[in-house]
Please model this.
Amino acid sequence: METATPVKRRVPRPRADALRNRERIVAAAREMFVEFGPDVPFDEIARRAGVGNATVYRNFPDRDALAREVVCSVMDRTSEWIESALMEGGDAFQALSDFVHFAADERIGALCPMLSEAFDQHHPDLFAARERTMEMVDALMRRAREAGQLRPDVASGDLMVAVSQLTRPLPGTACQGIDRFVHRHLQLFLDGLRAPARSVLPGVAATVEDLRTA
Model:
């Protein structure tokens, strides 16, 4: 008896309009998470994205899935930006400075509170995006340090804590209204990172691993 050759089933590719809807949902969710926090109702996100509630739930069955996609998309853009900056070369400290201001425009400080204890920190998508981002940040800082432009007693954990804190909206203030102060304060922080250092920092340099176990 001859055995028929199994026919490979083609996995259907998402339609272009479905991909656009997903991107619009993620973009709208990012904006509203920044403005109102992670508990913004799904129907409000759907309204801003210009889609129906069913479309939101079809793409993201629960809030964690949507929040994770928002955070991963921001980290993916951040990694791509750093990778491009490293390939371009140029002044190492200027690239680091540009990254810090880019991170502020990506609203990293406003999105960080979504990664609460209830959030699945070990989800493979989130873990992979976070690891790649921190590898890129380490490479950017290492380049500035090797050029003698970055003080040697700071690490990526120090940088990310400062960026998160300095770009996070103050309680009771509109995120958009604080922008005029954010980049000014970030530049003050960046001046403190330049080598040669003008002071001795207390404690030891913080790594990302230190932040995870703190």
In short: The two ends are 66 Å apart (CA to CA).
